[in-house]
Design a protein that fits this description.
Elements (H helix, E strand, L loop, with lengths): L4 H6 L6 E10 L2 E11 L4 E5 L6 H8 L7 E6 L2 E2 L4 H7 E4 L11 H11 L5 H12 L14 H11 L7 E5 L7 H16 L3 E6 L2 H4 L4 E6 L2 E7 L3 H5 L2 E6 L3 H10 L5 E5 L2 E6 L2 H14 L4 E6 L2 H11 L13
Helix pairs in contact: 4-5, 4-6, 6-7
Bound molecules: adenosine-5'-triphosphate.
C-alpha cells in the first residue's frame, strides 16, 4: 500500500524527497547509478554536476515523469513507483528550456498550466498570478516576445499556481543574464521562506552558494552531499590566496606545477588550491621565498573554490566513453 501525504506530513522530520539506489539505464548504460538522496523539508537543495551527469534524469524520476529501472523512494510522502499521479499534482516542475508556448499569450499560458495542474477557480488564480508578476496589463502579449528573464519568471509563476509544497527546478536560469538570475533567486528565497522545498540543478557558482544543501553528481553517481557549509571539508581542498605584484606570471607558473590543481582569479587575488595539502604548502614556501612583496594567506577552501574544482575535474559526461558508470 502506498504512503499517504498525511502520514508523511505528520512526522515533520520526514524529508520532502528520499530516494535509495535510484537507477536509470539507457542503452545498457547506467546514466543514474544507485543514487541515494534525502532533501529536507523547507530546504533549498542544490544539485550540481557536469553536462550529461544525470541531473535531469534523476529529477524526472523524483517527480514520477520517468520510471526508475532500480531503487525506490518517496516524494512528498508519495511512492515514486505507485503514486505518479499524486506526485505530478503536488509538485511544481520547471525544465531548463522555456517550457511554455511562445505563440500563446501570457494569460493563455498561465491558464493552460492551471488546467494541467487541475487548479480550481482558474480565472481568479490566473488573475492573481498576473497581478503578482506585475503583468496585469500584458495578459494578451505573446509569451514568446518576453525577455529571457521574464520568460523564466512566468514559467516559475505558472508552475506555482497550484501552490505545490515542492519545486523541482532543472537549470531554471540557463542562458539568463546575471541580473535576471538574481531576481529569479530572490523569488526562490521568498518561496523558501514560505516553506516551499526547492531542489534546483545548476551550473552556476553564484546559485550553488545560495543553497542550504548540495549534492554533486558525475557519471550518474552521487559523489558528495551534505549541508553546503560542510562540502569544502568533504572535498578536502586546501587553498592559499595570494595578492601583490606580477600575478599574471605567477598564475602561469602555478598552473604548470603538478602539485597545484586549481588557480582561480578572484578580483586582485589568486586562489590556489589542491587536495595535496603538503605539496601545495611546499609550492607556496618556494614561491613566497622568491618575492616578499606578495601576500600569501592560507584559508580553508570555501564553496566557490570547491565548486570550480568539482566542475573542472569532471569533463562533460556525455559520449561513448562517458566515465565509470557502466
Ligand atoms: N531518453 C534518453 N535516451 C537515451 N539516453 C538518454 C536519454 N535521456 C538522457 N540520456 C543520457 O543520459 C545521460 C544523462 O543525461 P541527463 O540529461 O540526465 O544529464 P544532465 O546532468 O541533466 O545534463 P545537462 O546538464 O546537460 O542537462 C546523458 O548521457 C544523456 O545522453
Amino acid at each position: 500500500m502506498s504512503t499517504t501525504p498525511a502520514e508523511s506530513v505528520s512526522a515533520q522530520s520526514d524529508p520532502a524527497i528520499v530516494v535509495k539506489g535510484l537507477t536509470k539505464i539507457y542503452n545498457g548504460k547506467k546514466v543514474v547509478n544507485a543514487v541515494d538522496m534525502s532533501v529536507p523539508k523547507g530546504a533549498i537543495y542544490g544539485f550540481i554536476g557536469p553536462n550529461g551527469s544525470g541531473k535531469t534524469t534523476t529529477i524526472r524520476m523524483m517527480c514520477a515523469l520517468l520510471t526508475p529501472d532500480g531503487g525506490e523512494g518517496h516524494t512528498l510522502g508519495y511512492d515514486i513507483h505507485k503514486d505518479a499521479r499524486a506526485i505530478k499534482e503536488n509538485v511544481g516542475y520547471m525544465t531548463q528550456k522555456f517550457s511554455l508556448y511562445g505563440d500563446l499569450t501570457i494569460r493563455e499560458n498561465l491558464d493552460f498550466m492551471a488546467r494541467m495542474y487541475r487548479v480550481k477557480n482558474r480565472k481568479k488564480v490566473v488573475d492573481e498570478t498576473l497581478r503578482t508578476l506585475g503583468l496585469e496589463g500584458r495578459g494578451k502579449q505573446l509569451a514568446g516576445t518576453l525577455s529571457g528573464g521574464w520568460k523564466q519568471r512566468l514559467a516559475l509563476a505558472a508552475c506555482m499556481q497550484h501552490k505545490p509544497a515542492l519545486l523541482l527546478l532543472d537549470e531554471p536560469t540557463a542562458g539568463v543574464d546575471p541580473k535576471a538570475r538574481r531576481d529569479f533567486w530572490d523569488e526562490i528565497r521568498q518561496l523558501s521562506k514560505q516553506g516551499v522545498t526547492v531542489l534546483v540543478s545548476t551550473h552556476y557558482m553564484d546559485e550553488a552558494v545560495q543553497c542550504d544543501y548540495i549534492a554533486y553528481i558525475a557519471y550518474g553517481k552521487k559523489l558528495i552531499d551534505g549541508p553546503a557549509a560542510e562540502i569544502p571539508h568533504q572535498v578536502g581542498l586546501t587553498t592559499w590566496r595570494v595578492s601583490g605584484p606580477d600575478l599574471i606570471q605567477l598564475e602561469d607558473e602555478l598552473r604548470a606545477d603538478p602539485r597545484v590543481e586549481q588557480v582561480a582569479r578572484f578580483g586582485a587575488q589568486l586562489h590556489v588550491s589542491s587536495t595535496d595539502s603538503a605539496g601545495l604548502d611546499a609550492v607556496v614556501a618556494e614561491k613566497s621565498g622568491e618575492n616578499d612583496a606578495r601576500k600569501w594567506e592560507k584559508k580553508e577552501a570555501e564553496l566557490e573554490e570547491v565548486f570550480i574544482y568539482l566542475m573542472a575535474t569532471a569533463a562533460d559526461n556525455f559520449g561513448v566513453n562517458g566515465g565509470p558508470s557502466a
